[in-house]
Amino acid sequence: MICCRCRALAFAKEGAQVTATDINGEKLKELDGHPGIKTKVVDVTKKDQVEALAKEFDHIDVLFNVAGFVHHGSILDCEEADWDFTMNVNVRSMYLMTRAFLPKMLAKKSGNIINMASVASSIKGVVNRCVYSTSKAAVIGLTKSIAADFLEQGIRCNCICPGTVDTPSLRGRIQAQPDPEQALKDFMARQKTGRMCTAEEVAHLCVYLASDESAYVTGTEHIIDGGWRL
């Protein structure tokens, strides 16, 4: 299995052999010493690095595409460079990774691809998330296309659509705002359950989609947002 660092522990706990990749080598060091996990610094927007990674594997059961970037702003705040960067990280990375690893799954007539999308996508319009939402809508479309094309060849493909998840990335974006205290209040005000989703709750859903218990599930977007979209 190839996975990001934030879900690696959950998969390893279930007995998976995990390769956790990230562009940030310092963050990957947080996983050093955990049984069942090895790490590798990879920029998944770089075709040569992705292809080099794929050559290290004879077979892979689960591919979890989760690299992402959140741009803040409407279409008028989104410059061409912002658009290109977001689409490159959020969509093209999944294209490159799937292109590299899907043939290995097809050779075994078995494989499972999980993509990280978002409720901020074709599911719900969200203020100041123009290019981010566009990219995540594309992820949903990519997921359904892969599922349809390779269903009869033993491949499953699903995506996860979280709402607001309490992560270090989110906390960093809040702190970067001119008024972090107000920014936090704004995030909390839209949580109908009174709290944000935890990373562990998303990890449990990831493990389910990777497991045999979800063997009849493919081509679907799995929403975990505490009812935010309602």
From TrEMBL:
GO terms for molecular function: 3-hydroxybutyrate dehydrogenase activity; 4-oxoproline reductase activity. GO terms for cellular component: cytoplasm. Its main location: cytoplasm. Pfam families: adh_short_C2. It comes from the Eukaryota. It is found in: Cytoplasm. It catalyses: (R)-3-hydroxybutanoate + NAD(+) = acetoacetate + NADH + H(+). SUPFAM superfamilies: NAD(P)-binding Rossmann-fold domains. One of its GO terms (biological process) is siderophore biosynthetic process. Pathway: Siderophore biosynthesis; Amino-acid metabolism. The keyword Oxidoreductase applies. Gene3D superfamilies: NAD(P)-binding Rossmann-like Domain (3.40.50.720). Keywords: Cytoplasm, Lipid metabolism, NAD, Oxidoreductase. Its EC number is 1.1.1.104, 1.1.1.30. Belongs to the short-chain dehydrogenases/reductases (SDR) family. Homotetramer. This is Dehydrogenase/reductase SDR family member 6. The lineage of its organism: Eukaryota, Metazoa, Chordata, Craniata, Vertebrata.
